[in-house]
Amino acid sequence: MSQFEQLYLDTAFLEPSGANFEVNLEFVVFQVSKRDLKVLTLPAGHSPFEGDLSLPMRRLGMEGLNSTGHTYISQELGIDSLVHLEQITAYTGSKKNSPVRQLNMLLLGLAGRIPKATRRQRGSFTPLTEISSGLGSMSTHDQHMILLAREFLSSLIQNTTVATLLCPEQFTLGTLRRVYECVWDTPLDNANFRRKILGTDGFVEFVSKAKQQNKQGRPSHLYKSGSLDKLNPSFQRPPFST
Amino acid sequence: MSQFEQLYLDTAFLEPSGANFEVNLEFVVFQVSKRDLKVLTLPAGHSPFEGDLSLPMRRLGMEGLNSTGHTYISQELGIDSLVHLEQITAYTGSKKNSPVRQLNMLLLGLAGRIPKATRRQRGSFTPLTEISSGLGSMSTHDQHMILLAREFLSSLIQNTTVATLLCPEQFTLGTLRRVYECVWDTPLDNANFRRKILGTDGFVEFVSKAKQQNKQGRPSHLYKSGSLDKLNPSFQRPPFST
To answer: What is the mean pLDDT of residues B3-19?
Structure first.
């Protein structure tokens, strides 16, 4: 038996108790800028999808799941402001015309708001409105993943203070409110919102008065993220408007 | 080049874009009976762990992740009362002395309370107190997974009505309270508990008065699960007692 023959037989023999899965990480990385909820997209390279947008995806290799996720987004795609990465769900599937099974892990990422993207950034943050209106074409699968991730994020900002990470380092309550409004896609009452935030110890921390004045001619107050993580009671999300 | 040589080269060449993972599902299936939180265990078969307990674990094959989980627990292990199965988290690792990478998915299962286990049931529900006291020996890894799953369940019953699934089909509020007490490992005030449950529309639904009388000589009321899923505001979990 040749060396190759032995090696092949070893490989074939190992298969039933060996590796049969390819594991991929799919990323929905959200960013809020001004009044837009945006998602990190890459150009979908292959014909017939040239010109389309796609979600970032990375095959899992020798590194761990979470470290691969961080490294891919921060270093390979050059997103400097990744502040949160969390598993949403995993699902299995098969490749067309291949015996290889696939396990895909959907991850939620949050990118903070930074003044300007660095040069080394690949991909771009595309407003969800552009995707839903068909301006940026994207596969049904990717659009479905964005819906799942947005629903996950909607619950997350109900139960935690993570929305503050989608603000600049120092922010007004108006800025924080617009994050909630963008993610939930619904307007919120300003007075109720202020009462909820300021009435929850540790949600935000007062920093200083802003230099700019607000519409009422008073200087806005600037805040930063507080020490609180989980909200209890959770933030009441308004019912969907029809 | 021989046929085997070609096959081996094909295999080797495919590897970088082929399967390199073995995917395993690990299960922490909880059941509450009377005043005990229990977890589904199997005998750890292999020497030197003979006599030890282990968590159920199943390698993922051609079937999907969730259907494999349900089939394994319900049919292969014969647990008739599985009422809930949910992904907790996934993590990666390597096998000793093997190039095969592993992705393990930890799943939370809940088993309802049934009068008697059927004959076809494999494994048994072991009280957590037996494991923590060292009566039932278990690997550090499995004990860690149980801790993770219990913490996950603790949050879940804060934010959802899923605790009712751990009761018999019809139950008193005392029974439901003992589920919360078991999972959180802390006593709860009876009057506050009743107020919270009965004050939340759809948490439970009144069925009838029980035949037995309670300590005060009044018949207990029997309830079943209501239509509500998520709790808002969430159920306040008491701080850990020291």
So the answer is: 47
**DSSP label at residue B203:** S
Q: Which residues of chain A are within 8 Å of residue B20 when distances are taken between CB atoms?
A: 19, 21-22, 61
Query: Measuring CA to CA, which residue among A19, A23, A60 is closest to residue B11?
Result: A19
> Residue B85: pLDDT above 50?
yes
pLDDT at A8: 44
Q: Tell me the C-alpha to C-alpha distance, in Å, between residue B227 and each of A137, B160, B201.
A: 39, 11, 9
Choose from B101, B104, B156, B230 for mutation: most chain A CBs within 10 A.
B101
Statement: A162-225 belongs to CATH 3.60.15.10: no
Beta bridge partners of B89: B106
- 């110890």: which residue's tokens? A201
Across A22-26, A160-164, A178-182, A208-212, least confident range: A208-212
Backbone CA torsion sign across A203, A209, A214, A218: positive
User: What contacts 24+ positions apart, CB below 8 Å, involve B184-191?
Assistant: B184/B154, B184/B157, B184/B237, B184/B238, B185/B37, B186/B237, B186/B238, B186/B240, B186/B241, B188/B238
Quick check: B197 pLDDT over 80?
A: yes
CATH number for the domain whose boundaries are B11-159: 3.90.79.10
The CA distance from B64 to the nearest CA of chain A, in Å, is 5
Reduced to 3 states (helix: H, G, I; strand: E, B; else coil), residue B79 is: coil
Give the domain ranges of chain A: 15-159, 162-225
Nearest CA in chain B to A3: B5
The pLDDT assigned to B12 comes to 39
pLDDT for B210 equals 76
Paired strand residues for B58? B25
- Residue to mutate among A13, A15, A21, with most B CBs inside 10 A, is A21
